[in-house]
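Repro:
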Amino acid sequence: VQLQAFGGGLVQARGSLRLSCAASGSIFSFSIKNMGWYRQVPGKQRELVAVITDVGTTNYADSVKGRFFISRDNIGTTVYLQMNSLKPEDTAVYYCNLFTIAGTNYWGRGTQVTVSS
């Protein structure tokens, strides 16, 4: 299973970016429990940004509530993260995550998001 993320880059504060992540390989949508996004800055632990379950339930870190929105495509193998009102503290490497109903975790390589003040 491979996760390929797109959409990172450099943006000014208060701007927007949209990340997308597509799962490919030996994976079927019915075997996916959750898809989500995590982020990490140097010297800190990777933290949850947002997750969406197979039934559409979403969960967000307090720091991004009301600014970031996660969604999945109709097939269920692509996840999106719409990031609005970006702040410099949102600067991080963002990682796509897929968690299967069998309990297996998959991670994408990460995409850099840099927010300038």
